[in-house]
């Protein structure tokens, strides 16, 4: 069955030729994505409506361009084990920035200090989910991300809703749903680790990073 490439990844690939011509490296793309996400987290933490609106745009842009680094690495022959892991770390830290920033910014609302606790807990779970995903990948699944999806859309694409929801003033319900979803996703990844604990790595894929075949998750 042919692989279905998510729509956002297909669109991000349109950036790759220009980036390659400009000599931009895949790790640079990942770093820019991380900086945008951290900036979004800082703006959310301010708890200001205007700042939050900018934060939403920055975060969506960060997630979008993060899909370009893997294709850029493949097209330019700059795949590396470091880049493979760095991309996953960037994705996890971006989620940490979002959850922590929102939690800080929402402390003055109905959740009070619970907002900060929920944000930090979700951030920790994002890091745990990353580690669990890499464990599954190291066991030979080749699907460290492994998000469920259909029709060119993945479950993680729901994060793009942060922009319109923020602009419409719905940060609080989004925050509650997103932190709850992160907990569910981490539990699902743990279940995958348990299911694959006896899996055997097939010949030619003993390297958990597998830079030649699957250099980067983006």
Would you list the SSEs in sequence order as H and E? HHHHHHHEEHH
Shape: globular
Mean pLDDT: 81
Oligomer: single chain
- CATH fold call: Four Helix Bundle (Hemerythrin (Met), subunit A)
**Percentage of residues in strands:** under 5%
Which segments are poorly predicted (pLDDT under 50) over 5 or more consecutive residues? 141-145, 200-216
Terminal residue distance: 20 Å
What is the CATH top level name?
Mainly Alpha
Please give the largest β-sheet.
Answer: 2 strands, antiparallel
By CATH, the superfamily comes out as: CDP-alcohol phosphotransferase transmembrane (TM) domain
SS elements, strand count: 2
- The portion of residues assigned to helices is 55-70%
What order do the strands of the largest sheet run in, or round the barrel if closed? 1-2
Whole-number radius of gyration? Answer: 18 Å
Number of helices: 9
> How would you classify the helix and strand content by structural class?
mainly alpha
Give the total of domains: 1
CATH architecture, by name, is Up-down Bundle
């Amino acid at each position: 069955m042919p692989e279905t490439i998510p729509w956002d990844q297909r669109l991000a690939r349109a950036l790759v030729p220009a980036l390659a011509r400009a000599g931009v490296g895949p790790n640079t793309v990942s770093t820019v994505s991380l900086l945008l996400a951290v900036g979004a987290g800082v703006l959310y933490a301010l708890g200001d409506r205007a700042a939050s609106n900018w934060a939403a745009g920055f975060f969506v842009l960060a997630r979008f361009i993060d899909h370009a680094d893997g294709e850029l690495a493949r097209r330019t022959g700059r795949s590396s084990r470091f880049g493979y892991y760095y991309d996953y770390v960037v994705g996890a830290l971006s989620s940490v920035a979002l959850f922590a920033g929102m939690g800080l910014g929402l402390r003055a609302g109905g959740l009070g200090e619970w907002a900060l606790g929920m944000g930090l807990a979700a951030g920790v779970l994002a890091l745990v989910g990353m580690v669990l995903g890499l464990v599954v990948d190291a066991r030979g699944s080749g699907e460290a991300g492994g998000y469920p999806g259909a029709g060119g859309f993945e479950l993680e694409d729901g994060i793009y809703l942060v922009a319109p929801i923020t602009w419409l003033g719905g940060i609080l319900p989004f925050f509650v749903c997103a932190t709850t979803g992160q907990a569910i996703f981490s539990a699902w990844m743990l279940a995958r680790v348990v299911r694959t604990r006896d899996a055997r790595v097939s010949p030619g894929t003993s390297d958990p990073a597998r830079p030649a075949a699957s250099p980067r998750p983006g």
